């Protein structure tokens, strides 16, 4: 049962019995010392909360996307402009502390947004996202975006309860970032190369970026995007539409 | 520096296991870190040495095993341990592979001292 919302969604502290062999065996040399074999994911608590968040989203038939990138790659700008290209109803959980005005920027465009007060956190975790999602009217939404803290390292380790990861890499940052931050790009379901209108001014090799990404994550799609090129924004909207969670039979439409 | 939040989750787990086993002290914490788990081992170690001081892990040593990427090729069925961070099969250059290990961070084992029965 969720205390924040009074909802009946359970938090499954999932059954570890299969991988959780608690063989407590006494070390023969030292009578008072015991060795306990555990095999436990270190971020297990976060993962349980993430599953709970997903249950919230799914109860409202919402698909949630986690947006990650360096600061300034264009996450907020993309969310501001996307509205013009899709009929899908979306809201944003804003966790980017670099620009504390991000939620206000979105609200000014008529987009529902809630700012998480991250303090000095370098990533969002599932607990922060849970707190925020109870501030959003989930009814009638198709998509909930989580704009993560601008950082290509820390957010990669945390499941926040979204369904897919979208990682942005802007042209001015350089094509070597995929190789430098392999964990983040390995976890991407979609990579957006943003600010592609700037390609003529930077030595960003799109083919090289694609080759690097393929070595880490061959199934990921790459889209070249610029907010100044409407067609590229339509491609993002189309990807979102085809990547909505499949509604299972029997679930309310 | 998410290593600090990872370490606090780790120490919390250690404390739970200690309570469940009536341990008074944890003397060793064994963890396994995948090279693609997204944590920096040296930062994790520093964080552990700082955070352990006010809890049951006070005197514990942290033993880290670094787990390289292990993949299984779906084309040539070869299992490989990789030195570089890529999931391409070194035997046949196929991209159709499955990662078997190297992406997780796991608590593996704890060594603890229990209440003296005197
Ligand atoms: N030229 C160009 N600039 C962009 C584009 N997208 C974003 N920007 C600019 O990049 C800067 C940072 O964008 P912002 O959305 O705040 O990045 P965030 O930190 O990832 O949310 C802003 O000045 C944007 O106007 C784009 O497609 N082309
Ligand atoms: Mg932003
Ligand atoms: Zn809840
Ligand atoms: Zn960090
Ligand atoms: Zn092969």
TrEMBL record, chain A:
Keywords per UniProt: GTP-binding, Hydrolase, Metal-binding, Nickel, Nucleotide-binding, Zinc
Protein name per UniProt: Hydrogenase maturation factor HypB
Domain (CobW/HypB/UreG nucleotide-binding) ranges: 66-223
PANTHER family assigned: HYDROGENASE MATURATION FACTOR HYPB, HYDROGENASE PROTEIN ASSEMBLY PROTEIN, NICKEL CHAPERONE
Transmembrane regions: none
Keyword Metal-binding carried by entry: yes
Family: Belongs to the SIMIBI class G3E GTPase family. HypB/HupM subfamily.
Pfam families per record: cobW (PF02492)
Gene Ontology MF annotations: GTP binding; GTPase activity; nickel cation binding; zinc ion binding
GO terms under biological process: protein maturation
Domain of life of the organism encoding this protein: Bacteria
Gene (UniProt): hypB
From TrEMBL, chain B:
GO molecular function, a single term: nickel cation binding
Keyword DNA-binding: no
Keywords: Metal-binding, Nickel, Zinc
Pfam families: HypA
InterPro entries xref list: HypA/HybF (IPR000688)
Binding site for Zn(2+): 73, 76, 89, 92
Superkingdom: Bacteria
Zinc among keywords: yes
Annotated positions binding Ni(2+): 2
GO terms (BP aspect): protein maturation
Protein family (similarity comment): Belongs to the HypA/HybF family.
PANTHER family to which the protein is assigned, alphabetical: HYDROGENASE MATURATION FACTOR HYPA
NCBIfam families named among the record's database cross-references: hypA
Protein purpose: Involved in the maturation of [NiFe] hydrogenases. Required for nickel insertion into the metal center of the hydrogenase.
Name used for this protein in its record: Hydrogenase maturation factor HypA
Source species of the chain: Shewanella decolorationis
């Amino acid at each position: 049962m969720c205390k924040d919302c009074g909802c009946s969604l359970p938090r499954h502290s999932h059954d570890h019995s299969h991988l959780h062999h608690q063989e407590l065996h006494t070390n023969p040399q030292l009578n008072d010392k015991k060795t306990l074999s555990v095999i436990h994911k270190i971020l297990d608590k976060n993962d349980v909360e993430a599953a709970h968040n997903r249950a919230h989203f799914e109860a409202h038939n919402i698909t949630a996307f986690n947006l990650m990138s360096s600061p300034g790659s264009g996450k907020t700008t993309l969310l501001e402009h996307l509205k013009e290209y899709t009929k899908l109803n979306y809201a944003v959980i804003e966790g980017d502390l670099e620009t504390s005005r991000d939620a206000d920027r979105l609200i000014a465009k008529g987009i529902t947004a809630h700012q998480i007060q991250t303090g000095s956190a370098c990533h969002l975790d599932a607990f922060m996202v849970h707190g925020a999602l109870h501030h959003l009217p989930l009814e009638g939404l198709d998509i909930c975006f989580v704009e993560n803290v601008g950082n290509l390292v820390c957010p990669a380790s945390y499941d926040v309860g979204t369904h897919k990861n979208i990682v942005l890499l802007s042209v001015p940052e350089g094509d070597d970032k995929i190789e430098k931050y392999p964990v983040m790009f390995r976890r991407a379901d979609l990579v957006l190369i943003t600010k592609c209108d700037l390609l003529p001014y930077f030595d960003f090799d799109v083919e090289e970026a694609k080759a690097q990404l393929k070595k880490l994550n061959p199934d990921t799609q790459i889209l070249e995007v610029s907010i100044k090129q409407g067609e590229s924004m339509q491609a993002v909207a189309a990807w979102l539409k085809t990547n909505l969670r499949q509604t299972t039979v029997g679930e309310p439409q | 520096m998410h290593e600090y939040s990872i370490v606090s989750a780790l120490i919390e787990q250690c404390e739970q296991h200690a309570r469940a086993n009536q341990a008074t002290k944890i003397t060793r914490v064994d963890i396994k870190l995948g090279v693609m788990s997204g944590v920096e081992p040296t930062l994790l170690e520093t964080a552990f040495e700082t955070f352990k001081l006010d809890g049951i892990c006070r005197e514990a040593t942290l033993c880290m095993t670094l787990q390289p990427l292990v993949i299984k090729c779906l084309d040539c069925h070869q299992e490989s341990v990789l030195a570089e961070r890529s999931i391409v099969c070194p035997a046949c250059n196929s991209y159709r592979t499955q990662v078997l290990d190297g992406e997780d961070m796991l608590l593996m084992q704890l060594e603890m001292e229990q209440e003296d029965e005197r």
